[in-house]
Amino acid sequence: MQEYVTDLGPVVATGKTKDLFASKGDPYGCYARNKDVVTWGNTHALPMIGKGKWSTRVNHNLMTHVFQRSGLPVAYRGLADKRTFRAELCDMFPFEVAVYGIVDAKSSFHKRNPNTPPEMLLQEPIVQIHLKTTGKIYQDWALPCDDPLMIVQGNEVRIYDPNKPVEEQEPIFVVPLEDAPQIFFGLEFFDEISSVAKRAYTGARFAYALVGGKLYDGKWEFGMPRRPTLARRPLMADVFDADSMRLLVYGKRADKQPIRDGGEAAAEAQVEAYQLAVKTSERLTSRDV
């Protein structure tokens, strides 16, 4: 594999942890390049040499050896270099799909369900939707927090603080679906997206269990491919790496929890967690999952 791919088109989009480039030879494809930066709490960022290649490798191993092998619909099309991968260009849905299978005491799921004991194996994975936001703003809506919980009831979208039990709060606001066309566009496929996310979580949890891992939860993003020859069905369309899950490997963190807990002072522990995530994901390649 070449060290650094050079045949990129212009930047299509830029985010906190990756840049998206057009593909010069394919108007319906793109390149995603992971950055050497770790973010947490929606407001904190720290440069971290190696983070881009670690994210790319974990994502590659899960996409190719778990999700694609399970027949799941993914936008991923392979590695381009150590920090970059190829993918289908998609119109992204404005929400994240979180799947919870084991209760982590650090998770927002536990904050919303404080009577659910930590380490409890849920009878069935639970799917919940979080609206993707930055700076506590979505379109013209001001929010008290980023990435709020989103619940659809009838023809309305209800937005809640994700860190409090739903039954103990009133919705932050209620929006008719007709006034939120982007959200409605994605929710047309809610059942399909939920099923795919559940299958992805279940497959990854089983795969990690074979190599000493305990996968508590994960979050996925979906989008609609622009390529006209592909079916108009949602694809898993973003990175799935150590930042996308809560994972222990033989009792050690292999996710982003160290820096969530300790901030910059935990940078060394975070590097070790990312390196463990890479090492563990490499072991998935030799397993029949």
Beta-strand portion reads 35-45%
Mean pLDDT: 92
Largest sheet: 9 strands, antiparallel
What is the ordering of alpha helices and beta strands? Answer: EEEEEHEEEHEEEEEEHHEEEEHH
Helical residue percent band:
10-25%
Briefly note the structural class of the backbone: alpha+beta
Distance between the termini: 26 Å
Our count of helices gives 6
Molecular structure report:
The mean pLDDT is 92. With 289 residues, this protein is an alpha+beta fold. The two termini are 26 Å apart. The strands form 4 sheets. Strands 8, 9, 12, 13, 14, 15, 16, 17 and 18 form a 9-stranded antiparallel beta sheet that branches. A 5-stranded antiparallel beta sheet has the order 1-2-3-7-6. It has a two-stranded antiparallel ribbon with strand order 4-5. Strand 12 (149-153) and strand 13 (156-160) form a beta hairpin. It is built from 6 helices and 18 strands. Helix 1 (51-67) packs parallel to helix 6 (267-283). The longest helix is centred in the C-terminal third of the chain and has 20 residues, at 190-209.
Question: What are the SSEs and their pairings?
Answer:
Elements: E1 8-14, E2 18-23, E3 26-34, E4 37-40, E5 44-47, H1 51-67, E6 76-81, E7 84-88, E8 90-102, H2 108-112, E9 121-131, E10 137-138, E11 141-142, E12 149-153, E13 156-160, E14 173-176, H3 181-187, H4 190-209, E15 213-225, E16 235-236, E17 245-249, E18 252-253, H5 257-262, H6 267-283
Helix pairs in contact: 1-6
